[in-house]
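Researcher: Last one for today. Full complex below.
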Amino acid sequence: MTIVETYPTLAEAARAMGRDAAYMAGGTLLMRDVNEGAGPARLIRVSDPGLTRVQTTGDGVRLGAGVTMAGVLASRELEVLHPVARLIGGPQVRNMGTVAGNLFAAHPYGDFAAALLALGALVVLAGQGSARPVEDVLKARDSAGLVEAIEVPRPRDPRAFAFHKVSRVKPKGVSVLSIAVHLPREGGRIRDPRVVFGAMGPTPLRSSGAERALEGHALDTATIDRAAAAACEGLAPFTDQIATEWYRREVAGVHLRRLLTRMEQG
Amino acid sequence: MAKTPVSFTLNGSPRAAFADPGQNLLEFLRRDVGDLSPKFGCGQGTCGACTVTVDGETHLACLVLAQTVEGRDVGTASGLARGAQLDPLQEAFMDHFAAQCGYCTAGMLISARALLDRNPRPTRDEVVEAISGNLCRCTGYEPIIAAILSVAEGRARA
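Model: Here's the assembly. Have a good evening.
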């Protein structure tokens, strides 16, 4: 039996958390376990409507933890993330699933988190002063704490960001893999690229190989070839019902090459 | 374990019932409220047979905690007809043979109604997208898409 505790603020919810409890936002993942009788003893919720707020800041957008994928799609400020949000679940799931919940979605979910990682988003945690990089939260999901907001920096050039999701069923299908790429450029050369793969490990992961191949280079055919060849470096794919580890390794570079070629051609 | 009283609006009428701890909205509606139109398919949020609206947005009732609809407006397929007057979508589903076994139909109708309320003239792609969270294992979807488009284009009966 799962009991539900609803608190007016995130701070109170944070105090109520414990080993026997799970924080519930949209419920699209947690309720599955609850329905099977395998839910946590306590579900912790927060009723504060402030958690669903989208605020424009100086250099980006601050997303309340409870903003849904539909909320992202309704915000013009978040246009860069629209192609990502549109590919999460079906319409009903997009009305329910939240941006912060996606950070904690186990493989093969978490395509939105992959995009946040590629954009260098920061996560504001309840009761903690400074925001932390998405990487930190993904690495320590169980102990990260409760998310209050996600700060998404606005890319200087929106065309420097691209997203691709590979699924067998369309338009709504689980990821074989997804790729989120952010390639800021200075004078035609790529600086601090971020190449993130979803469904290629327990959490979204950066491809250190592809990033190294892209750093300091112009986005041309030779660079794209090197990035594609090194795509799996830093990733840790495994076999599930959707695809085998071998298949994922085989196609990761192919899909990265296509995505980068599309970006090269503008 | 203590039950939670839940007061809400169902298809425009005020309703109240007691929800069990952790009970989902689908089971609550079917067992405790007596609305059998949303269907239990997977209980995992995959099939869309339990699609209802909460404050006008489509939700998967099997993934909604029943107690969270307190004070909210829930819509199900049983609220589509006005007395003997069917919703144009229901008429179109009959005309286009868009229901075979019928199990997905209630959820399909809710997703389609939500689409047309928001976007009265959707393209075919927008229709396909709107029902992408609803599985149908009988029709191959084409009759359903045709039915929805016929209402969108105002070609449906009545």
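Residues 49-153 of chain A form a domain with the Uridine Diphospho-n-acetylenolpyruvylglucosamine Reductase; domain 3 fold (CATH 3.30.465.10). Chain A has three domains: 3-46, 49-153, 158-264.
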